[in-house]
Each structure stands twice: as structure tokens, then as C-alpha cells.
């Protein structure tokens, strides 16, 4: 059974002297690992301008580098281009050092002579590869520095490595990675996604695959959000994870105690904490909300903001005790009518958009939702804004002369000291 070549290369020797010359041309500096059943000395090349004849080759095997404990010696007198040395009967070569002597006779002159050894090959019992260190899963950000995936495998002879990449969690059918034949491998973070890596260790007794290491590269983190404000001059925004800076020209409103109230103003209170659903008033167009960090508490957390929001497009669970309102225009599509309106005829829940805010009001709550179909922002900011479906019981409406009204028609009414517009 063939083992790994322990030493390769050429070892030249030169000596001047008499007709018969002796020379120790190579001595190992480290032991041959494991048990060796034979050593093959291959490809002798004569490198002398003069003629000479080889007399003998002598191999000495010892358990120490100083050769004080010799375990075997042997000499071959018939020199060939390939010579095989095997342990003497009853002898075992295990973790041993070796050295060679040779003798030749110069048949012409006493000039220098030389010879090269091309290769030594060691034969012995082989064991299949087995991984003692497995590669580990890792997660990185895009273009981040990485730690190497590392493996270690035992086997006789020492196994060779080859790394593979796969699109699936599988050690079959992976793509071999060119040049990646070391025990360590540096995965790439140049592209976001998940790649499965494994290593195959191979020697003459077989091959074995390592565990799969899952390497995940996260997409680049968003640094902000581009908010599109409609021609009506309003938008809503919600982010449960990111605080942001309200840009110039924008004003952020919360809904509290049945009214829309400005709370965030650039240059004054322009850091909006995460989990703060807002109505944002600005010029029509795109406005960039730069993400930041803050320790501020949201008005939502302080129970001073009745708006809700969703990070993803979400079907809001319906509760019959509530009305649900989304940012919209009235049925006529008047830009000046922008506000919160029922998104369906009954005021039931609807599907809210990604990073959008909505309003959820109790039908019998103090917020005055009752059967109001909508709230026009521009009118509310001037004291006129609620759009009822009918006059609710209790909490009566009055016309501008102070008379109680039981049936509402188009016009302006007063309730709880506030002007109410019915369109």
C-alpha cells in the first residue's frame, strides 16, 4: 500500500578521493510518521563527466536523529534506477529516522563525481481520512472581513484537501473551488446570499466530506427611507425598528384625544423614535428619512399617539368594536380633502401598506369616532374636519345658532366646542 512521499527533490553529493569512495548523501531531519513497510529510492541520475561504477547502497534506520539506537541496516550491491528497501525479518520501522550511504568506484581518474536522488517514496499501512475539526457556520454583513473556515483530517498518508461550494445544504454535486486545497478557506462576502461550503479529504485509502458550513452574507443595511408625499401634501410612515431624522420641510403629526397634533418639527424636535406611526405633511415629492439612533421614547409608547402601523403590507385583523381609517381623499378625489377615511363602506379593517400608518378608533370611545367616515386634515387644522355618517346618540350636535340638531345635512356644526364639517 502506497504512502505519501516524505521527501522529494534532489540531493547532490560530491567527493574527491581514491578509487573507492564512501559518502552519506542524505539523512532525515524528522522521522517518517507511522509504520513503514518499504522505502523506494527512484530515478538515479549520474552527473559525472568521468566514468565510475556504483558498488553499493546502505540504508540505516534508527529511532533517534543521532542514530544511537539503530533498529535496522541493510545494503544492496546491485544498483538499479529503482531500489526497494524493506525491513529485515522481525523488524518494524515505525516513526523512524533514516540515512543512506553509498559506495562507488571511479574507473578513470580521481576527479569529482556526483549523483542526484529524484524521489523517495514510503510505503506502509494506510488509513482512510477522518475529520477531527469541522467547519463552522458563519454570518457576515456585505463586504465584511471574515474568519477562515477551518478543517483538520487525520489519515495515513496525510490526506489532501479540496473545498467545494454548493447552492444547497449538500455534500454531493458541489462546485470545486480552484486553488482552495489548504485546511483553511476564506469565504467571500462580496455578494449577499447563503452559500454552503464543505471540504473533501482524500488519500489512497479513500475520500470523506466534512460537515457543511452555512455562510450567510446579509444585504447591506438600509441607511434611510425615501418617502413619497402625494400631490395632496401628506403621507404616513411607520418603522418598528428604525429611528430617523425628519428632513427639512416636513412636519410630523400624531393622533391624540381625537385630534391631529404636530409633534415633530425639523430643527426643534426632528428625531423620530422607532415605533412611532406618523402623518407627515410636506411638499409633494420624495423626502429622504435618514436612519439614526436615539434613546427618546415615542409618543406611542407614552400613550399619546393613537395611530398604528405595519412594516409589511398586512391584512389588519378586524375587531367589530373599532373603525379603521387609512390615508385617502374623499370620494370626489379633492386634494384638499386628504385625511383619514374608511377604506371600505363599513369602516372595517383593510390591508395596510408597508411602512404605512393607519387609524383605529373605538366606535364608542371618547375619541369621537362613533360613525365618522373620515377626518379631513386641512379642515381639522382650522377647527373643521370630521365627516360623520349620521348624528350619533348622545353628545348632541348644534348648528351655528346654538340649536340642537338631530339630523345632519351639509354644513358646519358644533359639538363639544369644536366645529364639525359635514360634506
What does this molecule look like?
The chain has 423 residues and is mainly beta. Among the domains are: 7-123, Jelly Rolls, CATH 2.60.120; 127-218, Sandwich (Immunoglobulin-like). It contains one helix and 40 strands.
What's the CATH architecture of the domain at 7-123? Answer: Sandwich
Major pleated sheet: 6 strands, mixed
What fraction strand? over 45%
What's the pLDDT, averaged over the residues? 81
- Helix % is under 10%
Distance between the termini: 97 Å
CATH C-level name of the domain at 7-123? Mainly Beta
Total beta-strand segments: 40
* Quaternary assembly: single chain
Overall geometry? rod-shaped
Helical segment count: 1
- By CATH, the topology of the domain at 7-123 is Jelly Rolls
Which structural class do you get from the secondary structure elements? Answer: mainly beta
The residue ranges in which pLDDT falls below 50 over 5 or more consecutive positions are: 1-20, 45-50, 110-114, 383-394
Kindly provide the radius of gyration, computed on alpha-carbon positions and rounded to a whole number of angstroms. 44 Å
Topology:
Blueprint: E1 7-8, E2 13-15, E3 20-27, E4 32-36, E5 38-46, E6 52-62, E7 70-76, E8 82-85, E9 93-106, E10 113-123, E11 127-133, E12 138-141, E13 149-150, E14 152-156, E15 160-166, E16 175-176, E17 184-185, E18 193-203, E19 206-209, E20 213-218, E21 224-229, E22 234-237, E23 243-245, E24 251-256, E25 259-264, E26 271-272, E27 278-281, E28 285-292, E29 307-310, E30 314-315, E31 322-328, E32 339-342, E33 351-352, E34 356-362, E35 372-376, H1 377-380, E36 386-388, E37 397-398, E38 404-405, E39 411-415, E40 418-422
